[in-house]
Write a structure and sequence with these properties.
Largest sheet: 5 strands, antiparallel
Structural class: alpha+beta
Distance between the termini: 64 Å
Low-confidence stretches: 301-313
Strand content: 5-15%
Order of helices and strands: HEHHHHHHHEHHHHHHHHHHHEEEHHHEE
Shape: globular
């Protein structure tokens, strides 16, 4: 694909695979905000989730992961994760302010990758999508995205990849959902809202208030219809695309207010920003101008561009021949994005059932650029579950070791008391994976940080209301004497 400002690119390609220059600026700001949310939310549990003194020492990760993990996890603990958090904050602020965006994206990508590799057991789809968006952000044409008074439709292999990536998330998820009986029956939205571990804020209110009105069934089918129409996010233009993007954005705002799925809705909103066509940005610009006029505020100077925003690779003058410079630029900003676009499309094709070459599958897995978006599909969760930690103190009293309060093993309220969605993802590994090393380290962490002598890991569950047949129960996964961690 030619330069992002090359007028020889057909208009129909520019309209569908191009991105408005103002959208690139908005995407940069959104990416910075999401990075701040990601880093600051992780910092709440820094010691427990990202250091050897916590629940996942590096030895546990290295027992399962090799290759680049061995290099990354050889960095000193706890300084390696401690340093990443302030760097991530600086990168997020730099992206929001528009300072050296390509350098800030590169540093932000390193922070995201290194934090995710430090503890891969607490990741969800939002983490995967955030990582992929940072990769695409490396190659965007910032040199042409000057945020002046008028926007321009910019098109490059990177803008095409970013647009296609956003559409693929929904299109692939649609294929998974239509394979599920619950989504076809119209019960999936209500079923998800009935699971205690996934709902927060207004989730219970929505279920209680609208559960018997048929609106949740309508929401179920409306979401399926939107997902099936998701290819139009790429194929449509003008007002139709604006309407579709806005509907998807409204759904993610709803998720943000009802479901404890981490920052997946925020990451999705950031990805949707790039799909708004020029007409939508013209409207935003006119509206912002009217607001500024009423407030008597002048427009901010948004068109200053730092030297790092040039698309060409910068070398000292005369140090590199023009031919070498041109080839290096083509490799970095055309060949690499072209390979990533190919990986994305082939991965999506393989997920939905088309045969793909085995070497390609291996390359996609190595690059970690897979497109298997299964959120709540093909079947949504049908039970509330929790991990409880009944423990015995030296004085003989019982306590829940995780929360350090009286224990109630069979209370579904335990599902609402998980510290964050990352703890829920970790607890899933304790129950649903080959987890003996992780169970042991979790027990060690509790023994070292609570005044207890013995601790058990208990898995409890009950099916959501209305699910037949109704089931409830639990089992002790493991039991540990704290003395075995002090010998």
């Amino acid at each position: 694909m030619k330069s992002a400002t090359d007028e020889r690119i057909p208009a129909w390609v520019r309209a569908r695979l191009g991105v408005d220059s103002r959208a690139i600026g908005a995407f940069r700001v959104a990416l910075g905000l999401v990075l701040l949310v990601d880093v600051l939310s992780r910092a709440r549990h820094l010691r427990a989730l990202y250091t050897d003194a916590g629940i996942v020492p590096r030895s546990v990760v290295l027992a399962e992961y090799g290759g680049p993990y061995e290099l990354v996890l050889s960095l000193p603990d706890p300084w390696y994760p401690l340093v990443l958090f302030p760097i991530g904050v600086v990168c997020g602020l730099a992206l929001i302010a528009g300072r050296r965006p390509r350098l800030s994206v590169f540093a932000g990508l390193l922070v995201v990758l290194l934090l995710q590799m430090r503890n891969p057991y607490v990741l969800n789809g939002g983490d995967v999508l955030l990582r992929i968006l940072f990769v695409w952000a490396l190659f965007l044409p910032y040199e042409d995205a000057r945020l002046g008074s008028e926007g321009r439709q910019l098109v490059s292999i990177a803008t095409a990849g970013l647009v296609l990536q956003t559409g693929l998330v929904y299109a692939v998820n649609a294929t998974h959902k239509i394979d599920g009986d619950t989504w076809w029956a119209g019960d999936a939205v209500a079923q998800v809202l009935a699971t205690e571990q996934y709902t927060y804020l207004f989730g219970d209110f929505v279920l209680d208030f609208f559960g018997g009105t048929g609106l949740l069934v309508a929401a179920n089918y409306a979401w399926i219809a939107l997902l099936v129409c998701s290819p139009l996010l790429v194929l449509a233009t003008g007002r139709l695309r604006t309407a579709l993007v806005s509907l998807f954005a409204l759904v993610h705002v709803g998720m943000l207010l009802t479901l404890a799925v981490g920052h997946f809705p925020l990451v999705s909103l950031a990805s949707l920003v790039v799909l708004y066509p020029p007409g939508a940005w013209d409207w935003v610009q006119r509206s912002a101008g009217r607001v500024r006029n009423r407030l008597g505020v002048s427009a901010p100077a948004l068109d200053s561009i730092s030297s790092w925003e040039r698309s060409t690779l910068r070398f000292p003058s005369g140090a590199v021949p023009d031919r070498v410079r041109s080839v290096a630029h083509a490799v970095v900003f055309r060949a690499v994005p072209a390979v990533l676009v190919t990986f994305s499309l082939l991965s999506a094709a393989g997920v939905v059932g088309f045969p793909t070459p085995e070497p390609t599958d291996e390359a996609i897995e190595t690059a970690d650029f897979g497109q298997n978006w299964q959120m709540f599909a093909p079947e949504p969760p049908d039970r509330t579950w929790w991990i409880a930690t009944p423990a015995e103190r030296p004085d003989g009293t019982s306590v829940d070791a995780f929360h350090d309060r009286p224990f109630a093993a069979d209370s579904p309220a335990q599902a609402n008391h998980m510290a964050s969605f990352r703890w829920r993802k970790y607890f899933q590994t304790l129950r649903f994976a080959d987890t003996h090393p992780r169970q042991t380290e979790y027990a060690r962490y509790l023994c070292e940080n609570r005044n207890i002598e013995r601790v058990e890991l208990y898995y409890g569950y009950q099916t959501v209301p209305g699910e037949q047949p109704y089931e409830a129960g639990g089992e002790t996964l493991a039991a540990f004497e704290c003395s075995e961690f002090t010998e």
